[in-house]
Please model this.
Amino acid sequence: MKLGFSAADELFRQECADWLNGQMEGEFKDIRGITSLTDMPERRKEWEQQLAAHKWSCIGWPAKWGGRDATLAQQVIFAEEYARAGVPGRVNHIGIELAGPTILAFGTEEQKARFLPDIAAGKTIFCQGFSEPGAGSDLASVRTKGHLEGPEGAQEWVVNGQKIWTSLAHISDWIFVITRTEEGTVGPKGLSFLMMPIDQPGIEIRGIPQINGDAEFNETFLTDARCPADSLIGQPGEGWKIAMGLLAFERGVSTLGQQMSFRNELDEIIEAAKANGTAHDPLIRQRIAKAEIGLRLMRYGALRMLSQTDHSRIDGAALTYKIQWASWRRGLGELAMDVLGQAGEVNDREAYGWDTLPNLFLYSRADTIYGGTNQIQRNLIAERGLGLPREPRG
Model:
């Protein structure tokens, strides 16, 4: 396991930091420090295109498709410096980190040429159509249905169903959808993976207000929604395999950038504790130390995972990572509120314009739910990681 970086890597780190800080102090200083994914969406799309213009949008992709053929170490470095510079989260994270790598791994050359250039250029924003009201963490319970219609050579997939928790669907151009395309199948069999344009009469997006006043999530209703037959990734019935490949990419290099964001949050908590005197409380000091240790352990674990993992599948280490960081960050949100005290419950802005730390607390309540609840993650660790007997299904 490699825990450090070479001299050449550190030169690359300086290049990343110089460019990112230059942008955040110059043309794009107005978006620096934004934590909400729904603030200034048009400006954020301009930022996506700025990244692409300077070949920073998807550095791990092949140069042929807009990337830099960056090494794993370089991808980690860029993710870390991106968060360190206070650059806001990317509105095309789903396209760059999930849809793109999935198309690279499973798509045809025609599909790569069709989708990848516009994703890399920041011109096409993607969202994810996996979860449903009755199929959240249990993706195999998907009920959305699709079938082919039309004459040979001009067939279309027609899809009916409902997706939920569709992050940023309201500003997206395309959605990838897991749908059941083989009548009578249950569980992971009979699912297919489709790429669908959102701007069509068959797709309706409804926002879901969150506890922190944001509206990042949406319900997505598909009523005879359509896409060309060649928008299918892989073969009919291979949707489960492709979805599992996509989720493996989700546990990829962006995890190190995520941890740098956690680093920024913990540093802000420490500064708040020093400012209001709670740093002198031995219990608060102990909790801060525990949070620091947990963050460092996550970093070493993520580096080990990235150095050993086949990124087309989820291995044992990747199975544990989500429950680890989600539980840690939920505790961090609680620590933030205990440090702030009553001041963290008072807000003089309009509506729910909370500062960073109260917003951390509110948002972190969802960390152990989305992307697979802690309960489901424990089942995955037991069944897939440890090979224990499957939980009885009713």
